[in-house]
Amino acid sequence: MPRVPLAGFVFLGVLSAPLFAEQTCQGLMSIALEHATITSATVVPEGPLSGGGRGGTAPVIAPAHCAVQGIIRPTKDSEIHFELWIPASGWNGKYLQLGNGGWAGAINAAGLAEPVRRGYAAAATDDGHQGGAGATWAIGHPEKLIDFGYRAVHETNVQSKVIIRDLLGRAPSRSYFGGCSDGGREALMEAQRYAEDFDGIIAGAPASDWSHLFTGFVWNARALTETPGSAIPPAKLPMIQNAVLAACDAADGVKDGLLQDPRACHFDPSVLTCKGAEGPECLTAPQVEALRKIYDGPKNARTGASIFPGYAPGTEAGPAGWSAWIAPASVTSSIQYGFGSSYYGHAVFEDPKWDYRNLNFDTDVAFGDQKVGTVLNATNPDLRSFRANGGKLIQYHGWGDPAIAPLSSIAYYDSVRAFLDKFPDARHHASSNTQEFYRLFMVPGMGHCGGGVGANSFGNGASAQRDPDHDIISALDRWVETGVAPDKIIATGTVVVDTSKVLTRPLCPYPQVARYNGTGDPNNAASFACTAPQVP
Known about the structure:
By secondary structure, the protein is an alpha/beta fold. It has 3 domains: 1-172, no CATH class; 173-208 and 379-536, no CATH class; 212-375, no CATH class. The chain is built from 13 helices and 16 strands. The protein has helices at residues 22-26, 113-117, 142-168, 182-193, 210-224, 237-248, 285-296, 322-325, 335-348, 363-376, 384-388, 407-422, 472-482; strands at 36-44, 47-48, 61-62, 65-72, 80-87, 94-98, 121-125, 174-180, 200-204, 392-398, 438-443, 454-457, 489-495, 498-507, 513-516, 528-531. It has a 9-stranded mixed beta sheet, with helices on both faces. The chain has a 3-stranded antiparallel beta sheet with strand order 12-13-14, with no helix packed on it. It has a two-stranded antiparallel ribbon with strand order 2-3. Strand 4 (65-72) and strand 5 form a beta hairpin. The longest helix is centred in the first third of the chain and has 27 residues, at 142-168.
């Protein structure tokens, strides 16, 4: 999935006298690291990053920092590049590591600017390879796949902390990780495999069940190309969305163009079937069947069992939505098609000529699970070590995500809760009390990691509000430092039907949902309360 900078992750920190002299930063070149080499250590003055301001956007202004670049080689076939920025002044004593997106392949240097400006030492890695358009680098290189799967993030954590201690004289007092998409997968992988690496973790729209998610990508492409008439033209997506909203929008107490919980919407695509000749306001029978398959998700060809959840209704025509990810004018140009083909063609079968039309949704899926799923999937529900270490985990997912089916986040959270109910914390006798360390927030209308419609800004991107009630990383920091868990996070955006108006809504910890009180301003978060869901 595309990389999403965590520039909106904001932090409190007071600038002070410089923490190091220039020659001290450059002196890091001589320190010894285990299976790692520092290739550059330079004091960088405050100023715009090179290459910033592309596409007419304002350039990213980086604060003064010591920029450390290095290569980690835990195996003979490993070459993990990482970059660490240490603030020139005002270090808050903490460390933040950023996640990647898609197949990674580059370091998100621009994303380091904001956390460093707020006082954090911050690092990122390319996950062990260059170039992220596909996974050709994995063909014949199982160690590189392991580096991508989990080793690069862990090694970057280990090496960065050694460097920070050497330069500043002490290790970070707190360590955090924040990522979305593949970065969300990395986040959950850290909680599962390396419970002591981070005190707090943010996992956004995690691609945690990588092997089954990418199987779903192929499933959608196949559904839309099953017959010459199966493809759903992008021009029909608004018609589909409008039909869903007409059927379900008001069910949550306010008609606002948003579904608070799409699970309560039981929309039947067959109502859109053309009564005669095909037209712009109806679907042919093959198109109805394709839409139903996308909603339902991939199934095992032999048993009929679900492989991965389908996509939630109600945001089919959203910005950067289905028309880009699932159903563009040419299905084979969709983002999902590209990822699904690279997963099976490069990582599973290691055959660049692999054809998505040949996938067997029984035996091939099982082979992929066995060969690479154990490396890439972050689905282990056993978070006991992370819990015992005092770790705190916040996960979020947009209900309008066209990339990673939002129900997958609920499925993982429920699996953790069910597992921990069997193995409760020794301090508790009746239940796991999962919410004491792990909370999931579902975001109505939000797309992949951000964007979409509705209130979808809460520190997951650029944000002017930096308090724990409105900013997810500040909420995590407060939870780790003081034990105050986020009972809600206030998201900001614009009204769906009038984008000139500001919209605020509370994001509630799953399984709660925001419910309108029936009398207040429906555009104001104060008019909503977090309550138990009403899902038939």
